[in-house]
Design a protein that fits this description.
The protein is built from seven helices and five strands. The chain is of the alpha+beta class. It folds into three domains: 53 residues; 101 residues, Beta-Lactamase (2-Layer Sandwich); 58 residues. A five-stranded antiparallel β-sheet has the order 2-1-5-4-3. Helix 6 packs antiparallel against helix 7.
């Protein structure tokens, strides 16, 4: 048998190699297509997650701005200080109350704006605040640099971070000058009413005595006029003093004829 006949009987190795290469290439293309689809799906998921994160961040920024506006434009004074009482943030109300620029107010100890007579007690309270869990409330006299003292009501709460560690203090400072003036007027009226009652009681008692005396021993015509006069005078004395003039005299000032 010749060599040509032997070669013809052997399988064509080059054809088998070409077939194997074509199948492997097809498998690789399918694998790449699968990976590409998975990558595309992952990209879409990441893109959706990023858009959601941006939306949440936008909402947080808007919410923070809303609370910042509430803080800045509240009718009462608000402060944020560190544990030592050094001012870090302040709103417009407290700036106007103390008649200072915000840049001047920040980084100043709050104690310098309290009345000198109250600074020792204020310092003692301040040193205890970080250790207290409940909201603290008391009255205080503020002393702006260029005006008289201002009575205020102070409400303080501690800012706590991780593991409950104190990180600062929040202060609500309410101007109570109007309330104090109202209380003072009420006390003045009560005091005047007590003085009026003190003066009126013995007068009414003496009038009753003389009325009884005249009714028993005076002439009948005199008894009638005395009784009528005493009743009118007693009615006037028992009336409450006018509200608009608490310092007026209790008894009318009759001119001598």
């Amino acid at each position: 048998m010749s060599s040509e006949e032997v070669s013809a009987m052997l399988p064509d190795q080059s054809l088998e190699q070409d077939t194997d290469s074509s199948e492997q290439l097809e498998e690789r293309n399918e694998a790449l297509a699968t990976v590409s689809e998975e990558l595309q799906l992952t990209y879409e998921e990441l893109k959706a997650a990023e858009e959601e994160l941006h939306e949440q961040n936008r909402k947080l920024v808007a919410e923070r701005q809303r609370y910042q506006d509430l803080f800045n434009f509240a009718s009462d004074g608000y402060l944020v200080t560190d544990e030592a009482g050094v001012i870090q943030e302040a709103n417009h109300a407290i700036v106007n109350l103390l008649s200072l620029d915000l840049k001047v107010l920040v980084k100043k100890p709050l104690i310098v704006f309290t009345a000198p007579s109250e600074r020792r007690a204020f310092y003692r309270r301040l040193s205890r605040l970080p250790a207290l869990e409940q909201i603290q409330n008391w009255e205080l006299l503020l002393k702006p640099l260029r005006s008289d003292t201002i009575p205020v009501e102070v409400t303080v709460t501690c800012i706590r971070g991780a593991f409950g560690k104190p990180e600062g203090l929040r202060w609500l400072i309410r101007d109570i000058r109007d309330r104090k003036q109202t209380e003072a007027r009420l006390l003045e009226k009560e005091s005047f009413s007590e003085q009026h009652e003190t003066l009126r009681t013995p007068i009414v008692s003496k009038m009753s005595f003389w009325r009884c005396f005249l009714m028993n021993y005076a002439h009948p015509s005199t008894q009638f006029w005395a009784g009528s006069g005493f009743c009118k005078l007693a009615h006037l004395i028992r009336q409450k003093p006018p509200r608009h003039s608490p310092r007026s005299s209790v008894m009318p000032n009759y001119k001598q004829s």
